[in-house]
Amino acid sequence: MGRDLSALFDPKSVAVVGASNDPAKYGHAVAAQALRAPERRPVHLVNRRGGTVLGRTAATSLAEIGEPVELVVISVPGSGFEAAVDDALACGARAIVGITAGFAETGPPGLARQQALAAKVRAAGAVLVGPNCLGIADNTTQLYLASDRFAPGGIALLSQSGNLALELQLRCAPHGLGFSRFVSLGNQADVTLVDLVEDAARHDATRAIAVYAEDFGDGRAFAEAAATAGKPVVLLTAGRGTASARSAQSHTGALTTSADVVAAACRDAGVELVATPHEMTVVLAALNGTPRAGRGRTAVCTDGGGHGAIAADAAESAGLTVPELGAAAQEKLSTLLWEQSSVRNPVDLAGMGEQNPHSYGDTVGALLALDEVDAVLLTGYFGGYSAATGGLGGPLADSGTAGGGSALAAGELETAHQMAGHAARHAKPLVVQSMFPDAPSCRTLAEAGIPVFSASEDAARALAAMSEPEADGPRGVHPLPPAAPPLHDTGYHGLRTLLTAAGVPFPAAREITDEAQLLAAAEEFDGPYVLKALHLLHKSDAGGVALNLPDKDALLAAHREMHARLDAASYSVEAMADLTDGVELIVGVNRDPRFGPVAMVGLGGVLTEALHDVAFALAPVSAARAEQLLEGLGTAALLKGVRGRPPVDVAAAAAVIERITTLAAAHPEIAEIEINPLLVRPDGALALDARAVPA
């Protein structure tokens, strides 16, 4: 059960401290909005000079109101903010919205002030949104405490940017989308993004949660809240393209960026990650109460070959599949369409719609009824007939087909209702791309919950948001394991000992510091041998690895030559693994400051950084999820066997990945753990090298 935010979204009374008649001041805009629903709850305006504000008598202080106030909005200069918070708590406020800026965003002194304020609010049993925020609104409770109006609807908008929130509102309007509530996150001194996601998940009137965030706070908690929300969460964030700030002390550190971490968290949590406000609007339109698809098998229906080909390419680029329909399906469609129509997929009406607009609806209905189809994308001219008679400038408007245009328009409108019925009956997504998205027939579809777009790529992205391809793998954020006793020896052999105890297999090895120890190690296990200079990051590049040394004499000679060059403090003598038919992987775990341990798996060995064929997930990673990550690599074909090589034991590799990532997640004192390479052969997996970087 999350925090109780009822006083924030449905307070019994409201006061705006800093209410003003000056339109240039934020206290004016918030007060004007608050007064939109004075009959819902008492609304008090407070201005230290008193007088009249917006036609209402203003109190000079909260105390002057003479009764408790449950929610207080504070929009005063920074120097007076603490005193205003004290007054609010003294008058019984259970929720405070801090508009005032000048706290954590200004540096350490401001952060200290902010932390002290938050502690005071929590101690009083109240909640604080902000400071440095732009207000809140809840259309379901007639609470209007932001500078702008938000059309009512089913989206909870949680944003760190006021201007982006306004842009999203404008972009959503043409799709008939509105908002259940809006919260400007501000500095999240007390009420956090996680608190708000959890509360929106419990809010019956919210169907989807839209988030713009730059600071996730506890990113892992955000992912967990989104994964368990039970409703779609769509995330727009900035700064994903910059590399993380830490110095790269391993391949894992060098390859992991903020973008990788955020994308991995979103995939695991089932969050729709978008790159622009436009894309966010497309996804929200798609998820607005429409059914979800299965594996993303998409049928493209078109009335022209060009539109069909473009839409099919867009669908595949969005991660969907456009498979050729089976023989029975093609035969069924052939009975509905004329001879020149293509029925393979894309299904092309080839102009039949001009003779019979109902052919659109008949074909869409037949496609939705197919077990081999998860979703349908209708693309092309549909909408043009009703546009011609609806004053929207369709081509038929000047065609001279006086009666024909009206008949086609009427038929198209009937077909729109028909398609809406098919979509509802089969509970599969139908998305439309139209040259005339504002035509009456397209508006009919949109009113029935069928998304309509003007661009093929938007229609494809919408379908991708409604689809759940099997390749995405198991969803969910695995809980962190209990912290294990700290590892004090983070050297190579200390780490090997820890990993071996966790079930990660290694070849036999001994650490040596002189020739006598080297010869003793050679007596403990048979050659061929490997010699490694320890405490080097890129040992191979530095000439610190010698492989396939056949006997003791070769091992001794290699040690003398290597020591003369590198003068390493210690070396490792190891049994040489059988590399026959093996594939080298890399498994790493990096501890991100926001999202905690993040796992990386991919093609390993000396070319890891050059090829950059890696995948990410929040750690720990289950064996089932690890298999999905491996199968999604660009070089996954190597694991299945190519050019006469046998397939390797992917299940064994996945089991080892689960053990490594679970161990790493249990050791917060380690910033990075890396196994490179993890050799996977047809008969199992074997770790050949390991490295740890202390936090």
From TrEMBL:
Q: Does the keyword Nucleotide-binding apply?
A: yes
Keywords associated with the record: ATP-binding, Ligase, Nucleotide-binding
Q: Which Gene3D superfamilies match?
A: ATP-grasp fold, A domain, ATP-grasp fold, B domain, NAD(P)-binding Rossmann-like Domain, Succinyl-CoA synthetase domains
Q: Which SMART domains match?
A: CoA_binding (SM00881)
Which Pfam family would be a valid example here? CoA_binding_2
Is Transcription regulation one of the keywords? no
PROSITE patterns, alphabetized: ATP_GRASP
Domain (ATP-grasp): residue spans on this chain: 496-545
PANTHER family, per database record: 3-HYDROXYPROPIONATE--COA LIGASE [ADP-FORMING], ACETATE--COA LIGASE [ADP-FORMING]
The protein in question is named CoA-binding protein
The species this protein belongs to is Streptomyces kronopolitis
Source species taxonomy:
Bacteria, Bacillati, Actinomycetota, Actinomycetes, Kitasatosporales
